[in-house]
Design a protein that fits this description.
Layout lengths: L36 H11 L12 E10 L18 E10 L14 E9 L2 E8 L12 H8 L10 H10 L4 H8 L13 E2 L4 E4 L5 E10 L8 H10 L3 H11 L5 E10 L25 E10 L4 H6 L12 E2 L4 H17 L78 H10 L2 H15 L5 H14 L1 H10 L15 H11 L3
Antiparallel strand pairs: 1-2, 1-9, 2-3, 3-4, 5-7, 6-7, 6-10, 7-8, 8-9
Bound molecules: NADPH dihydro-nicotinamide-adenine-dinucleotide phosphate.
Family: Belongs to the catalase family.
Enzyme class: oxidoreductase
GO molecular function: catalase activity; heme binding; metal ion binding
């Protein structure tokens, strides 16, 4: 039987290659010549294989699938992909850790990115969420500082728990997200066993022009499952690619993961009087106030055929909204609207949206043109608007911006408007007392103590105790005891120094 014949190697111009193994040299021991263009170009391409790593969410994986509408939600939005029960839209999901680099282990304690691209018949809709419903900061001006504190020190190149707790305790709005991060939810068992959240509030508009504020929740049908800290650490050593492998293998064996999309819906006029500022990314809307309604389901059923082309080059932006869905006055969201597109311009290039994984499945009629690596050209279309020669014209009704009324005010740098029950510690306290089980509470304490014992200064540890005491006094005493600063199981009051307590209070009052 004949072996199948391999194709002939070529260079990237398709010209047959002279050898797979030998450089062009002057005699067997002579010098390699520069005009060995085949080997020289092979080296040059290799040297340029990496695109810049994402500054955040560098280590990730993804899969293709579909979204299917299961309930009539036309009363909330006119978005075409949500227009009728049974409608399916192809989509791609990318999951990631946040702080680690490309080679980092999958199971470290970190929030997880939950980025979705829906290839709708109105262009691409990206929902760039996390596996947590809240975030560490509420103003985009603090994001870069927050990430710097999670990354590496400039002198040693090492991650540093002291700088993490220093930043968190000086930014008490972080308490809700840090409670979730330090709970077992900070170490999800697999990507299939975690929820995804828009976290931000968005707006929607229906065909009659009625507007709503909404939050998106993708609830895992597999059930939420987490690793304990010890299990996560063991898996970090055993298989740093565990989450990547688990998702891939589940899809190969036909165990396609599924999430149920639920939405919380707030009538537009209720935002101003709601007990929490509904645009503050550090807060949830308690389910009792706005019970989630079912919308549809998302199923991942196809692995990428090429990791670089589909996962690394996948580029998401919350600016990719479709008619029927709009923004909200969330200041983190507004920052991300600029930042995501900008980072892809740097990382992939100005035509990143022409790559197959990012390209919409509808025709593009844009006046943007040229630049590096343009692949799709507009042809003879006019290159300016307005024009008299049949060029594209904006559909100003269909694509109208979804706005909201704003109080007239002076240009300035403001904290969020404070609503009746806004404070940085209330919701994490509820999570600790009313949602977590006894075991989860115990794990939260040991996780905090383990993390804050690892190269954290005594001064910052005092603030760590004061911070957790504000979340819950019992939690504060347990953390204090664990850190060797007194307190204990029975104690209601940890030994919080006045200086630390005052510092936390003064920062929190700025909420
Ligand atoms: P509910 O009892 O209605 O909901 C509690 C939520 O907490 C559920 O969605 C549950 O997810 C989730 N949850 C359970 N364990 C954890 C954990 N270790 N880390 C993070 N989330 C967890 O309560 P409320 O809506 O009144 O909210 C109470 C608190 O629950 C909030 O302060 C917030 O900390 C947390 N929470 C609230 C969410 C919301 O959108 N309202 C969303 C997520 C958390 P599941 O149902 O999948 O188990």
């Amino acid at each position: 039987m004949n072996e199948p014949k391999s194709p002939a190697t070529t260079n990237d111009s398709g010209v047959p290659a002279p050898s797979d193994e030998y450089s062009l040299t002057v005699g067997a021991s002579g010098p390699t010549v520069l005009h060995d263009h085949y080997v020289v170009q092979k080296m040059q391409h290799f040297n340029r294989e990496r695109v810049p790593e994402r500054v955040v969410h560098a280590k990730g994986t993804g899969a293709h699938g579909f979204f299917e509408v299961t309930e009539d939600v036309t009363w909330i939005t006119k978005a075409s992909f949500l227009a009728e029960v049974g409608k399916r839209t192809p989509m791609f999901a990318r999951f990631s850790t946040v702080a680690g680099e490309q080679g980092y282990a999958d199971t470290v304690r970190d929030p997880r990115g939950f980025a979705l691209k829906f290839y709708t018949d109105d262009g691409n809709y990206d929902l760039v969420g996390n596996n947590t419903p809240v975030f560490f900061v509420r103003d985009a001006s603090k994001f870069q500082d927050f990430i710097h504190s999670q990354k590496r020190l400039p002198d040693t190149g090492m991650r540093d728990n002291d700088m993490q707790w220093d930043f968190w305790t000086l930014s008490p709005e972080s308490a809700h997200q840090v409670t979730i991060l330090m709970s077992d939810a900070g170490t999800p068992r697999t990507l299939r066993h975690m929820n995804g959240y828009s976290s931000h509030t968005f707006s929607t508009i229906n065909a009659a022009g009625e507007r709503f504020w909404v939050k998106f929740h993708f609830k895992t049908v597999q059930g939420r499952e987490n690793f304990s800290d010890a299990e996560a650490r063991a898996m970090t050593a055993e298989d740093p690619d565990f989450h990547r492998r688990d998702l891939r293998e589940a899809i190969i064996r036909g165990d396609n993961p599924e999430w149920r999309l639920e939405m919380q819906v707030m009538p537009f006029a209720q935002a101003a009087g709601y007990r929490f500022n509904p645009f503050d990314l550090t807060k949830v809307w308690p389910h009792g106030d706005y019970p989630p309604i079912q919308v549809g389901r998302m199923v991942l059923d196809r692995n990428p055929a090429n990791f670089f082309a589909e996962v690394e080059q996948a580029s998401f932006s919350p600016a990719n909204l479709v008619p029927g869905i709009g923004l909200s006055p969330d200041k983190m969201l507004m920052g991300r609207i600029f930042s995501y597109h900008d980072t892809h311009l740097h990382r992939i290039g100005p035509n990143y949206e022409q790559l197959p994984i990012n390209a919409p499945k509808v025709a593009v009629h844009s006046y943007n043109k040229d630049a590096h690596m343009t692949f799709k050209h507009a042809g003879a279309q006019p290159v300016y608007a307005p024009n008299s020669y049949g060029g594209p014209q904006a559909d100003t009704d269909r694509a109208a911006d979804l706005g909201w009324p704003v109080d007239a005010g002076e240009l300035g740098r403001y904290a969020y408007a404070k609503h009746a029950e806004d404070d940085d510690f209330g919701q994490p306290g509820t999570l600790y007392r009313d949602v977590l089980s006894d075991t989860e509470r115990d794990h939260l304490v040991t996780n905090i103590v383990g993390h804050a014992s690892d190269h954290v200064s005594a001064q910052v540890q005092q603030r760590v105790i004061a911070y957790w005491t504000r979340v819950d006094t019992q939690l504060g005493s347990r953390v204090a005891a664990g850190l060797g600063h007194g307190g204990g199981e029975g104690s209601r009051q940890g030994p919080v120094t006045e200086e630390a307590a005052n510092l936390i209070a003064s920062r929190a009052n700025r909420a």
